[in-house]
Amino acid sequence: MPITIRDVAQQAGVSKSTISRYLNGRYECMSLETRQRIARVIAELDYRPNAVARSLKQKRTHTVGAIVANILNPFSTSIIRGVEDYCKKHGFNLILCNADDDPVKEREYIEMLTAKQIDGLIINTTGGNNPLVKEVNASVPVVLIDRKAPEMGLDTVTVDSDLGARLAIGHLVGLGHRRIAMFTLPCDQVSPRLERVRGYQAALAEYNIPFRPELLVETDTQLETVTAKVRELLARAPGERPTAIFGANNLMTMAIVKALKRLGVAIPRDMAVIGFDDWEWAELIDPPITVVAQPVYDMGIKAAAVLIKRIKAGKPPKKPATVVFAPQLVVRASCGELLNA
Protein backbone atom coordinates (compact mmCIF):
# COMPACT_ATOMS: atom_id res chain seq x y z
CA MET A 1 0.00 0.00 0.00
CA PRO A 2 1.21 3.56 -0.69
CA ILE A 3 2.57 5.55 2.23
CA THR A 4 0.09 8.17 3.44
CA ILE A 5 0.39 11.41 5.34
CA ARG A 6 -1.08 9.54 8.34
CA ASP A 7 1.84 7.08 8.28
CA VAL A 8 4.36 9.93 8.24
CA ALA A 9 2.60 11.73 11.09
CA GLN A 10 2.48 8.59 13.27
CA GLN A 11 6.17 7.76 12.78
CA ALA A 12 7.24 11.38 13.30
CA GLY A 13 5.07 11.71 16.39
CA VAL A 14 3.17 14.76 15.16
CA SER A 15 -0.29 15.53 13.80
CA LYS A 16 -1.34 15.28 10.15
CA SER A 17 -1.85 19.05 10.11
CA THR A 18 1.78 19.54 11.16
CA ILE A 19 2.93 17.35 8.27
CA SER A 20 0.66 19.32 5.95
CA ARG A 21 2.13 22.61 7.15
CA TYR A 22 5.64 21.23 6.66
CA LEU A 23 4.89 20.11 3.10
CA ASN A 24 3.52 23.56 2.29
CA GLY A 25 6.54 25.37 3.70
CA ARG A 26 4.62 26.91 6.61
CA TYR A 27 7.16 26.56 9.40
CA GLU A 28 5.72 29.11 11.84
CA CYS A 29 5.74 27.74 15.40
CA MET A 30 7.59 24.62 14.17
CA SER A 31 10.94 23.95 15.77
CA LEU A 32 14.03 23.07 13.77
CA GLU A 33 14.17 19.70 15.54
CA THR A 34 10.58 18.91 14.42
CA ARG A 35 11.32 19.89 10.84
CA GLN A 36 14.43 17.74 10.78
CA ARG A 37 12.53 14.77 12.25
CA ILE A 38 9.77 15.09 9.65
CA ALA A 39 12.30 15.34 6.83
CA ARG A 40 14.06 12.22 8.09
CA VAL A 41 10.81 10.21 8.29
CA ILE A 42 9.73 11.33 4.83
CA ALA A 43 13.07 10.15 3.45
CA GLU A 44 12.95 6.85 5.35
CA LEU A 45 9.42 6.07 4.18
CA ASP A 46 10.05 7.45 0.68
CA TYR A 47 6.80 9.39 1.04
CA ARG A 48 5.63 11.20 -2.09
CA PRO A 49 2.70 13.62 -1.71
CA ASN A 50 -0.11 13.23 -4.20
CA ALA A 51 0.35 16.36 -6.31
CA VAL A 52 -3.11 16.20 -7.88
CA ALA A 53 -4.85 15.82 -4.53
CA ARG A 54 -2.83 18.69 -3.04
CA SER A 55 -3.65 20.92 -5.99
CA LEU A 56 -7.38 20.22 -5.68
CA LYS A 57 -7.37 20.84 -1.96
CA GLN A 58 -5.23 23.97 -2.03
CA LYS A 59 -6.57 25.25 -5.37
CA ARG A 60 -2.94 25.58 -6.47
CA THR A 61 -0.82 23.67 -8.96
CA HIS A 62 2.52 24.80 -7.49
CA THR A 63 3.53 25.59 -11.05
CA VAL A 64 4.57 28.94 -12.47
CA GLY A 65 5.13 29.93 -16.07
CA ALA A 66 7.95 32.02 -17.50
CA ILE A 67 7.97 33.52 -20.99
CA VAL A 68 11.18 35.04 -22.30
CA ALA A 69 11.45 37.14 -25.43
CA ASN A 70 14.48 35.29 -26.83
CA ILE A 71 16.03 32.20 -25.23
CA LEU A 72 19.12 32.55 -27.45
CA ASN A 73 20.05 35.68 -25.50
CA PRO A 74 22.40 34.74 -22.60
CA PHE A 75 20.53 37.38 -20.59
CA SER A 76 17.40 35.22 -20.76
CA THR A 77 19.13 32.00 -19.74
CA SER A 78 20.75 33.65 -16.70
CA ILE A 79 17.44 35.19 -15.65
CA ILE A 80 15.67 31.84 -15.93
CA ARG A 81 18.38 30.09 -13.92
CA GLY A 82 17.64 32.45 -11.04
CA VAL A 83 13.88 31.96 -11.42
CA GLU A 84 14.21 28.18 -11.52
CA ASP A 85 16.55 27.96 -8.53
CA TYR A 86 14.22 30.04 -6.35
CA CYS A 87 11.10 28.18 -7.49
CA LYS A 88 12.66 24.78 -6.84
CA LYS A 89 13.82 25.83 -3.38
CA HIS A 90 10.27 26.91 -2.52
CA GLY A 91 8.40 23.93 -3.94
CA PHE A 92 7.25 25.32 -7.29
CA ASN A 93 7.68 23.79 -10.72
CA LEU A 94 8.54 25.95 -13.73
CA ILE A 95 7.23 25.85 -17.31
CA LEU A 96 9.53 27.82 -19.62
CA CYS A 97 8.38 29.26 -22.96
CA ASN A 98 10.38 31.12 -25.61
CA ALA A 99 8.47 33.77 -27.59
CA ASP A 100 11.25 34.34 -30.17
CA ASP A 101 10.38 38.07 -30.09
CA ASP A 102 7.10 37.10 -31.77
CA PRO A 103 3.90 38.60 -30.25
CA VAL A 104 1.74 35.91 -31.88
CA LYS A 105 3.80 33.11 -30.35
CA GLU A 106 3.84 34.96 -27.04
CA ARG A 107 0.02 35.20 -27.03
CA GLU A 108 -0.28 31.47 -27.70
CA TYR A 109 2.00 30.71 -24.76
CA ILE A 110 0.09 33.04 -22.42
CA GLU A 111 -3.17 31.31 -23.35
CA MET A 112 -1.62 27.84 -22.98
CA LEU A 113 -0.13 28.58 -19.56
CA THR A 114 -3.32 30.06 -18.16
CA ALA A 115 -5.26 27.05 -19.48
CA LYS A 116 -2.88 24.85 -17.50
CA GLN A 117 -3.92 26.81 -14.39
CA ILE A 118 -0.48 28.05 -13.44
CA ASP A 119 -0.26 29.83 -10.10
CA GLY A 120 1.69 32.79 -11.52
CA LEU A 121 3.55 34.13 -14.53
CA ILE A 122 6.92 35.82 -15.05
CA ILE A 123 7.21 37.47 -18.44
CA ASN A 124 9.85 39.34 -20.42
CA THR A 125 7.18 40.62 -22.77
CA THR A 126 7.56 41.48 -26.44
CA GLY A 127 5.27 44.46 -25.82
CA GLY A 128 2.69 43.17 -28.30
CA ASN A 129 0.27 41.64 -25.79
CA ASN A 130 0.20 44.10 -22.90
CA PRO A 131 -3.63 44.28 -22.70
CA LEU A 132 -3.81 40.47 -22.45
CA VAL A 133 -1.05 40.35 -19.82
CA LYS A 134 -2.91 42.97 -17.77
CA GLU A 135 -6.11 40.92 -18.09
CA VAL A 136 -4.33 37.75 -16.91
CA ASN A 137 -3.02 39.60 -13.85
CA ALA A 138 -6.60 40.08 -12.67
CA SER A 139 -6.77 36.34 -11.88
CA VAL A 140 -3.15 35.11 -11.94
CA PRO A 141 -0.24 37.08 -10.43
CA VAL A 142 2.12 38.40 -13.11
CA VAL A 143 5.63 39.82 -12.69
CA LEU A 144 7.27 41.77 -15.49
CA ILE A 145 11.02 41.29 -15.80
CA ASP A 146 13.34 43.65 -17.71
CA ARG A 147 10.31 45.65 -18.79
CA LYS A 148 8.54 48.73 -17.45
CA ALA A 149 4.87 49.37 -18.12
CA PRO A 150 3.44 51.47 -15.26
CA GLU A 151 0.07 51.70 -16.97
CA MET A 152 -0.37 47.93 -16.52
CA GLY A 153 -0.11 48.05 -12.72
CA LEU A 154 2.12 44.95 -12.47
CA ASP A 155 4.95 43.97 -10.16
CA THR A 156 8.19 44.75 -11.98
CA VAL A 157 11.84 43.69 -11.68
CA THR A 158 14.26 45.51 -13.94
CA VAL A 159 17.59 47.33 -14.19
CA ASP A 160 18.35 51.03 -14.55
CA SER A 161 19.03 50.98 -18.30
CA ASP A 162 19.35 54.76 -18.53
CA LEU A 163 22.16 54.69 -15.97
CA GLY A 164 23.82 51.77 -17.75
CA ALA A 165 23.95 53.68 -21.04
CA ARG A 166 25.35 56.72 -19.25
CA LEU A 167 28.07 54.56 -17.67
CA ALA A 168 29.05 53.19 -21.10
CA ILE A 169 29.21 56.57 -22.82
CA GLY A 170 30.94 58.19 -19.85
CA HIS A 171 33.66 55.54 -20.00
CA LEU A 172 34.23 56.15 -23.72
CA VAL A 173 34.25 59.91 -23.33
CA GLY A 174 36.76 59.54 -20.52
CA LEU A 175 39.06 57.79 -23.00
CA GLY A 176 38.74 60.68 -25.44
CA HIS A 177 35.99 59.44 -27.77
CA ARG A 178 33.48 61.95 -29.11
CA ARG A 179 32.13 60.21 -32.21
CA ILE A 180 30.29 57.31 -30.59
CA ALA A 181 27.82 55.15 -32.49
CA MET A 182 25.08 53.13 -30.81
CA PHE A 183 23.62 49.95 -32.31
CA THR A 184 20.20 48.94 -30.98
CA LEU A 185 17.30 46.73 -31.92
CA PRO A 186 14.23 48.69 -33.09
CA CYS A 187 12.78 50.26 -29.96
CA ASP A 188 9.10 49.40 -30.69
CA GLN A 189 8.06 50.71 -27.27
CA VAL A 190 10.24 48.11 -25.51
CA SER A 191 11.20 49.99 -22.36
CA PRO A 192 14.87 48.97 -21.85
CA ARG A 193 15.70 49.77 -25.47
CA LEU A 194 14.05 53.18 -25.17
CA GLU A 195 15.82 53.87 -21.88
CA ARG A 196 19.22 52.94 -23.29
CA VAL A 197 18.74 55.25 -26.27
CA ARG A 198 17.64 58.06 -23.96
CA GLY A 199 20.64 57.40 -21.71
CA TYR A 200 22.96 57.50 -24.73
CA GLN A 201 21.52 60.82 -25.88
CA ALA A 202 21.52 62.30 -22.37
CA ALA A 203 25.16 61.31 -21.81
CA LEU A 204 26.20 62.94 -25.08
CA ALA A 205 24.42 66.13 -24.02
CA GLU A 206 26.06 65.99 -20.59
CA TYR A 207 29.50 65.97 -22.23
CA ASN A 208 28.54 68.67 -24.77
CA ILE A 209 28.71 66.23 -27.68
CA PRO A 210 26.11 66.92 -30.40
CA PHE A 211 23.74 64.03 -31.05
CA ARG A 212 24.15 62.77 -34.60
CA PRO A 213 21.14 60.72 -35.76
CA GLU A 214 23.25 58.84 -38.34
CA LEU A 215 25.29 57.33 -35.49
CA LEU A 216 22.18 55.86 -33.81
CA VAL A 217 21.75 52.64 -35.79
CA GLU A 218 18.59 50.53 -35.47
CA THR A 219 19.12 47.01 -36.79
CA ASP A 220 18.52 43.36 -36.05
CA THR A 221 21.36 41.24 -34.66
CA GLN A 222 21.97 39.14 -37.78
CA LEU A 223 25.65 39.20 -38.70
CA GLU A 224 25.06 40.12 -42.35
CA THR A 225 22.86 43.07 -41.41
CA VAL A 226 25.20 44.35 -38.72
CA THR A 227 28.22 43.97 -41.01
CA ALA A 228 26.50 46.09 -43.66
CA LYS A 229 25.69 48.79 -41.08
CA VAL A 230 29.26 48.82 -39.76
CA ARG A 231 30.62 49.02 -43.31
CA GLU A 232 28.43 52.09 -43.94
CA LEU A 233 29.89 53.85 -40.91
CA LEU A 234 33.45 52.98 -41.88
CA ALA A 235 32.85 54.42 -45.36
CA ARG A 236 32.32 57.89 -43.90
CA ALA A 237 35.09 60.50 -44.10
CA PRO A 238 37.82 60.11 -41.44
CA GLY A 239 36.53 63.06 -39.44
CA GLU A 240 32.96 61.75 -39.60
CA ARG A 241 33.25 58.04 -38.89
CA PRO A 242 32.87 56.89 -35.26
CA THR A 243 35.83 55.88 -33.13
CA ALA A 244 33.69 53.76 -30.78
CA ILE A 245 30.54 51.62 -30.94
CA PHE A 246 28.13 50.93 -28.08
CA GLY A 247 26.09 47.72 -28.45
CA ALA A 248 22.72 47.94 -26.70
CA ASN A 249 22.60 44.26 -25.71
CA ASN A 250 24.89 41.25 -25.73
CA LEU A 251 23.61 39.73 -28.99
CA MET A 252 24.18 43.08 -30.70
CA THR A 253 27.66 43.44 -29.20
CA MET A 254 28.62 39.93 -30.32
CA ALA A 255 27.49 40.75 -33.86
CA ILE A 256 29.44 44.03 -33.82
CA VAL A 257 32.63 42.24 -32.74
CA LYS A 258 32.21 39.59 -35.45
CA ALA A 259 31.49 42.26 -38.08
CA LEU A 260 34.58 44.29 -37.19
CA LYS A 261 36.78 41.20 -37.30
CA ARG A 262 35.29 40.20 -40.65
CA LEU A 263 36.05 43.68 -42.02
CA GLY A 264 39.61 43.61 -40.71
CA VAL A 265 39.03 46.37 -38.13
CA ALA A 266 41.23 45.91 -35.05
CA ILE A 267 39.60 46.27 -31.64
CA PRO A 268 40.41 48.61 -29.89
CA ARG A 269 43.15 50.07 -32.10
CA ASP A 270 40.80 51.01 -34.95
CA MET A 271 37.47 50.89 -33.11
CA ALA A 272 36.58 50.78 -29.42
CA VAL A 273 33.67 48.52 -28.48
CA ILE A 274 31.53 48.49 -25.34
CA GLY A 275 28.35 46.49 -24.74
CA PHE A 276 25.30 46.47 -22.49
CA ASP A 277 25.03 43.04 -20.78
CA ASP A 278 27.81 40.74 -19.73
CA TRP A 279 27.98 37.12 -20.90
CA GLU A 280 30.18 34.11 -20.33
CA TRP A 281 32.39 34.56 -23.39
CA ALA A 282 32.87 38.33 -23.11
CA GLU A 283 36.05 38.00 -21.07
CA LEU A 284 37.41 35.19 -23.28
CA ILE A 285 37.15 37.03 -26.60
CA ASP A 286 40.30 38.64 -27.98
CA PRO A 287 40.25 41.35 -26.78
CA PRO A 288 38.02 40.84 -23.73
CA ILE A 289 34.93 43.06 -24.04
CA THR A 290 34.21 45.97 -21.72
CA VAL A 291 30.54 45.83 -20.69
CA VAL A 292 27.83 47.29 -18.53
CA ALA A 293 26.77 44.24 -16.54
CA GLN A 294 23.33 43.51 -15.14
CA PRO A 295 22.89 41.28 -12.05
CA VAL A 296 20.72 38.97 -14.14
CA TYR A 297 20.75 35.92 -11.86
CA ASP A 298 19.73 38.09 -8.90
CA MET A 299 16.99 39.65 -11.02
CA GLY A 300 15.62 36.17 -11.70
CA ILE A 301 15.75 35.31 -8.00
CA LYS A 302 13.94 38.53 -7.10
CA ALA A 303 11.25 38.10 -9.77
CA ALA A 304 10.47 34.61 -8.48
CA ALA A 305 10.46 35.84 -4.87
CA VAL A 306 8.02 38.64 -5.68
CA LEU A 307 5.77 36.24 -7.60
CA ILE A 308 5.67 33.52 -4.95
CA LYS A 309 4.98 36.10 -2.25
CA ARG A 310 2.01 37.27 -4.32
CA ILE A 311 0.81 33.70 -4.82
CA LYS A 312 0.95 32.92 -1.11
CA ALA A 313 -0.74 36.20 -0.17
CA GLY A 314 -3.73 35.19 -2.32
CA LYS A 315 -4.59 38.78 -3.17
CA PRO A 316 -3.03 41.65 -5.12
CA PRO A 317 -0.98 44.21 -3.18
CA LYS A 318 -2.29 47.72 -2.61
CA LYS A 319 0.59 48.99 -4.74
CA PRO A 320 2.62 46.97 -7.27
CA ALA A 321 6.23 46.32 -6.32
CA THR A 322 8.94 47.88 -8.48
CA VAL A 323 12.48 46.61 -7.99
CA VAL A 324 15.23 48.39 -9.95
CA PHE A 325 18.74 46.93 -9.90
CA ALA A 326 21.83 49.04 -10.59
CA PRO A 327 24.13 48.07 -13.50
CA GLN A 328 27.91 47.96 -13.12
CA LEU A 329 30.70 48.94 -15.52
CA VAL A 330 33.14 46.06 -16.07
CA VAL A 331 36.30 47.39 -17.71
CA ARG A 332 38.26 44.96 -19.88
CA ALA A 333 40.36 45.62 -22.97
CA SER A 334 38.01 46.44 -25.87
CA CYS A 335 38.02 50.21 -25.35
CA GLY A 336 41.80 50.50 -25.17
CA GLU A 337 43.78 53.25 -23.55
CA LEU A 338 43.33 57.01 -23.65
CA LEU A 339 42.66 58.00 -27.27
CA ASN A 340 45.67 59.64 -28.98
CA ALA A 341 47.69 59.34 -25.78
The coarse silhouette is elongated
How far apart the termini lie comes to 80 Å
Total number of beta strands: 12
- CATH architecture level-2 label of the largest domain: 3-Layer(aba) Sandwich
Specify the structural class. Answer: alpha/beta
Work out the helicity level.
Answer: 40-55%
Looking at the structure, the CATH topology of the largest domain is Rossmann fold
User: Helix count?
Assistant: 12
The biggest sheet amounts to: 6 strands, parallel
Q: Would you identify the CATH H-level superfamily of the largest domain? A: Response regulator
Mean pLDDT: 91
**H/E order of the elements?**
HHHHEHEHEHEEHEHEHEHEEHEE
Share of residues in strands? 15-25%
CATH class of the largest domain: Alpha Beta
- Order of strands in the sheet with the most strands? 2-1-3-4-5-11
Give the total of domains: 3
Protein name: Transcriptional regulator, LacI family
InterPro entries: Cro/C1-type_HTH, HTH_LacI, LacI/GalR-like_sensor, Lambda_DNA-bd_dom_sf, Peripla_BP_I
Pfam family, one: Peripla_BP_3
Keywords: DNA-binding, Transcription, Transcription regulation
